[in-house]
Amino acid sequence: MRKKQNHFFYLALGLLLTQTTLAEGWAEGFDLFMNNCSECHQRSGRGIKGIYPSLIKSEIVTGNGLDIAQVLIIGRGEMPSFADAMTAKEMAQIINYIRHAWGNEKNLKTNVNVSADNILQLLQK
Ligand code: HEC
Q: For the chain, what is the HEC assignment?
């Protein structure tokens, strides 16, 4: 009986820690988004029609996450590259934030968070 209780305790603790980590990751991602992206894509993520694409329901955003990383690393059209302006960790935080913001979470093809290591691998290519 004791053993079982311990088991539940660690399970609950584990869940709590995961949730806290995620929430913190998104809070930082939110700040980074506001400071680096919202000027064009707007705080709402909706962009400006015909100029800056909406990041809501975007296939690139709801894909595997690495597609967004490519856009951030290479830049795209009028969007500058962020490869020199941000760390891999910061890019991962922004990516994970926008994938969970504005209802995107419901449309994710794979609900796996991008890590700084994932980004570093892309940067080395
Ligand atoms: C100077 C304005 C500007 C800034 C700042 C900017 N973007 Fe963009 N972004 C654009 C434009 C313009 C496009 C479309 C480029 C094209 O397809 O020609 C775009 C495209 C994208 C796309 C692809 C969307 C799709 O479905 O095609 C993503 C994802 C994206 N931006 C994310 C970001 C993130 C995250 C940031 C902040 C780190 C950011 N952008 C900062 C202008 C900007």
A: CHHHHHHHHHHHHHHHHHHHHHHHHHHHHHHHHHHHCHHHHCCCCCCECCCECCCCCCHHHHCCCHHHHHHHHHCECCECCCCCCCCHHHHHHHHHHHHHCCCHHHHCCCCCCCCHHHHHHHHHC
